[in-house]
Specification:
Layout lengths: L10 E4 L8 E4 L8 E4 L7 H12 L4 E5 L5 H4 L2 H8 L2 E4 L4 H6 L6 H5 L10 E2 L5 E4 L2 E7 L8 E5 L4 E5 L11 H4 L5 H13 L4 E4 L8 H17 L1 H20 L1 E3 H10 L1 H11 L6 H15 L2 E4 L2 E4 L1
Parallel strand pairs: 3-4, 4-5, 5-6, 10-11
Antiparallel strand pairs: 1-2, 2-3, 7-8, 8-9, 9-10, 12-14, 13-14
């Protein structure tokens, strides 16, 4: 029986942590002008991203960068990679105008209180089209749910699915539309169904190692989704803790008072408190204190002399 990882020949998966998404380098084949990089990780890790990509290229040019979606952990290195390699940048079309105008009100970075350097795309990665890279024919597939404008890449011949945050080995990304009172759970379910219909041999997720037991991953994702549908407040509380943890991964350490101020100022956290935390606490800052206590209890964060520390 063929080894599913054989499907990754000609590809380099740069597995990162949770602040930074994975990067997938599709090495050039034949007369292609250069390699293609999928996603560029967080701006805080841009020096590491550059070093990893340069090493993986082994002297080959980088012709194109593509983003699966425009959250800060997937596109934060865009500007530097464009400058360093002269690569063209392709993004999904949904937020193209917001990117062109760098409209913080439409992009997710301001709402989540996260960092991202401004970048300028040269083209679009449209669902229904094909990206030819590495001698492969990558179908661009819509993947709404985690982000309404997200896409996946699928190579039917090799059975490789670049799933971004639509499917991880143990779940999927936060369903951001649901966090602001808009539908998103049905989109997650539809994308999981679409993945199940594909002849996938190996999945390269946005976070975590590539995996081949797609059926088990889908079962876990559907179980999590059922829980969120049954208890939307559970999803919202998890999201609030993720926002705090992610912010501490950016900052590494922050005084308790400053973290309280951040949660009050970050529009998405404030909206979550208004929808789900108001009945439990008197203010976003008080909700922050309660959630930080849970994160410290689980070992995800620590507190040292009035300073919250990432673990």
């Amino acid at each position: 029986m063929p080894n599913p990882t054989d499907a990754l020949q000609g590809l380099t998966v740069l597995e990162r942590g949770w602040l930074s998404s994975n990067n997938l380098l599709i090495h050039a084949a034949g007369d292609e002008p250069g390699a293609v990089l999928v996603d560029t990780s967080h701006v805080n890790h841009v020096d590491q991203t550059l070093a990893l990509v340069r090493h993986a290229l082994q002297g080959q040019p980088l012709a194109t960068v593509v983003n699966t979606h425009l959250h800060s952990d997937h596109c934060g290195g865009n500007a530097v990679l464009q400058r360093e390699f002269g690569a063209a940048l392709l993004i999904p079309p949904g937020q193209a105008e917001a990117v062109a105008n760098w409209d913080d009100g439409q992009l997710s970075h301001q709402a989540t209180g996260q960092r991202c350097d401004r970048f300028a795309p040269q083209g679009l990665l449209r669902p229904g089209e094909v990206l030819r890279a590495g001698g492969r024919r990558w179908e661009v597939l819509p993947a709404p749910g985690h982000d309404p404008d997200s896409v996946m890449l699928f190579d039917p011949a090799g059975g490789v699915l670049v799933s971004a945050d639509a499917l991880w080995e143990h779940g999927f990304g936060l369903v951001f539309p649901e966090l602001v009172g808009e539908p998103g759970f049905d989109d997650v379910a539809s994308v999981l169904d679409a993945i199940e219909r594909l002849p996938v041999r190996v999945v390269v997720p946005g976070h975590g190692a590539p995996f081949s037991d797609v059926a088990a991953a889908l079962a876990r994702a559907r179980s999590r989704l059922r829980n969120y549908v049954a208890e939307p407040a559970r999803h919202a509380r998890h999201a609030a803790k993720v926002l705090i943890k992610y912010h501490l991964m950016e900052e590494r350490r922050q005084a308790v008072a400053a973290l309280r101020d951040w949660t009050a100022a970050a529009p998405l956290f404030a909206a979550l408190w208004d929808l789900h935390g108001r009945a439990l606490t008197e203010s976003p800052q008080a909700w922050c204190d309660a959630l930080v206590g849970e994160l410290v209890g689980s070992g995800a964060l620590g507190i040292e002399d009035g300073v919250v520390v990432d673990r």
